[in-house]
Description:
CATH topology: Peroxisomal Thiolase, Chain A, domain 1
Number of domains: 1
Shape: globular
Number of strands: 12
Bound molecules: coenzyme A
Strand content: 15-25%
Number of helices: 15
Structural class: alpha/beta
Strand order of the largest sheet: 3-2-4-7-1-8-12-11-9-10
Radius of gyration: 20 Å
Amino acid sequence: MNKVYVIGVGMSKFIKPRGEVDYPEFGLEAAVKALNDCGLTYDAIEFAACGYVYGDSTCGQRVLYQLGMTQIPVINVNNNCSTGSTALLQARNAVASGTVQCAMALGFERMERGSLKSKWADRTSPLDHVYQVIKSTQGLDPKAPGAAQIFGRAGEAYIKQYGATPTHLAKIAEKNHRHSIKNPYSQFQDVYSLEQIQQSPTIYGPLTKLQCCPTSDGAGCAIVASEAFVKQHGLWDQAVEIVAQVMATDSPDMLSKNPIEWAGVDMTRRAARQAYQQAGITPSDVQVVELHDCFSANELLSYDGLGLTAPGKAHTLIDNGDNTYGGKYVVNPSGGLISKGHPLGATGLAQCSELVWQARQWAGDRQVPNVKYALQHNVGLGGAVVVTVYKKASDTYAAPRTDYNPAVEARPIRQVDYEQAKSKTRAEFLEAKL
Ligand SMILES: CC(C)(COP(=O)(O)OP(=O)(O)OC[C@H]1O[C@@H](n2cnc3c(N)ncnc32)[C@H](O)[C@@H]1OP(=O)(O)O)[C@@H](O)C(=O)NCCC(=O)NCCS
């Protein structure tokens, strides 16, 4: 495997689903920003993996043709909530295998208000087995959203089995909302007291509305390249190495009677263990974590699954203040999915953007001190998890080459940004709406 570096990242602001902006515009914005970030044009991209969950096939091509019909291979990826990091894994593998020198991972999504619903009611749900187990053990609540039930029941079980409390879950949401006020890309940027979080409407079990991620529209993008490419293009002062990346899918534990396992914790455990091994580190070497807090309960479970605490001790991380600034780790400095939003295909690439900015020390007043290793965790029910470890590749990073710092300002793209990023060959373009 060749070494792989993230050289460019970019994202749109995540927003409430309103239907006013379409996916080609979101996707273009993130792709242009990532290309501007590393000063390349689309001609440098030899392979692209595009992630989205809701949309017809080949939306990736529809987005990228706005940058030029350069005839590169484009793969469209759908892996539920881990779609964005699955696209990143595809792009990384293309470079790591030596197939290409430079690849793009792009994720975008347009969602609807309210909770997630199946678009394919006439066929078998990919989650039918886990719903069957829930039905036969605890019974399904027909009124509560399916995902909230799975994660809510897992949280309840962790509380019962290990002595955590519902207050621990509310504290996670309080922290992530507090972090979000410093992230201009975040859908919500509001501070809430613990009481406000606890008193917001109950969605399922211990989970109140302010402990759930909303539905969102938006896009994220990362450009990855080989060591030779980084050297050739003089990009060392903005490259961040991916030192480990592991995808795992469910084990039969997912079908056990233990609700903790319904949320995919076993996938996380196995992927994390392998990722630390690949990186040659232990969890204690990490300073900053972007993890999959789709519901506060899943952040709690993930502390345990990712080995940030001893098994059964996830709540002690909260009690000791070791999940925020001043503690051992800063978890979800971006505000996490709970505040930043969760456009399924984009989330993994937004996590990547945040961690790259953190590694480059560009994150302004949400900067985590002394970042050397950063950990990313993105999980989709059904299921797939991707755990990625990033490492600083330079002692000093250059200032942004754009005329503003994209880590602390969420600007729309301008015609000049697009002109800089688009293909300069004789390729044709689909019309781009900026
Ligand atoms: C939490 C949830 C049940 C709320 O549903 P809802 O109240 O019907 O949500 P709507 O989209 O109709 O929004 C109603 C209002 O609540 C706000 N809202 C929605 N979800 C919110 C959340 N999680 N936190 C704060 N506000 C939220 C909306 O912005 C909207 O505000 P507005 O009226 O001022 O515009 C829903 O957002 C949900 O199911 N989230 C989880 C999504 C999910 O499962 N993702 C995959 C995870 S694995």
